Amino acid sequence: MREEEVSPEGWKPINVKGFINEIGPLLRPLERGEEAVYAMQAEARHLNPLGLVHGGVLTSLLDQAVALVAWNACDRQPTVTVQMDTRFLGAARAGDFLATRASLRHATRSLLFVDASVSAGGAPVAAASAILKRTAKTGQST
After folding, report:
1. What are the helix (H) ranges across the chain?
2. Cα–Cα dist 29/13, whole Å
3. What's the pLDDT score for residue 7?
4. I need a surface site. Which of 17, 37, 44, 132 has the fewest CB within 10 A?
5. Is residue 69 within 8 Å of 102, Cβ to Cβ?
């Protein structure tokens, strides 16, 4: 879905700067619940030569979801991904709506541990466990 197109019913694009806008737009539900849920519509431009959504697209979507959860958990202070282990569980194709759920598992003073998953039509496609580090805003130290 290109930005000029209408988002699926119940979803709206969110303004996240950087790379995710090149593969997105990233969507969030109009009605926010307790759980962090994001999504994107898979298109032909997201496919690998086998006709499946490229693993790099799925990994980027997972990384963005864990980053947003960590950012919110840190009162919107910057974080960076230190490590992310991704497991590919199924396949997604053009036209699939990729729903991503992420949750904070644990936090210390400097590190956040976040889990995330991507599904298409309710079927699992990928999952990740990530460690993110709090970083300083410009002019601050950690």
Report:
1. 20-23, 55-73
2. 9
3. 59
4. 17
5. yes
Q: Which structural domain range is residue 106 located in?
A: 11-134
For 33, half-sphere exposure in the C-beta direction (CA atoms, 13 angstrom radius) is 10
Could you tell me if residue 65 is inside a domain?
A: yes
Q: State pLDDT tens for residues 44-80.
A: 999 999 999 999 999 999 999 999 999 999 988 999 9
Is residue 102 within 8 Å of 66, Cβ to Cβ?
yes
Query: What is the mean pLDDT for each group of 10 consecutive residues in the chain (142 residues)?
Result: 54 86 87 81 96 96 95 91 97 96 94 96 96 78 49
Residue 32 structure tokens: 């926010």
Find, among 97, 82, 95, the residue nearest to 130 by Cα: 82
Burial class for 85, CB neighbours closer than 10 Å (0-12, 13-18, 19+): exposed
99: Cβ contacts below 8 Å, ≥ 6 apart: 37, 38, 39, 118, 119, 120
CATH number at residue 59: 3.10.129.10
> Number of structural domains, the chain?
1
Q: CA-CA-CA-CA torsion for 115, 119, 123, 128, nearest 10 degrees?
A: -30
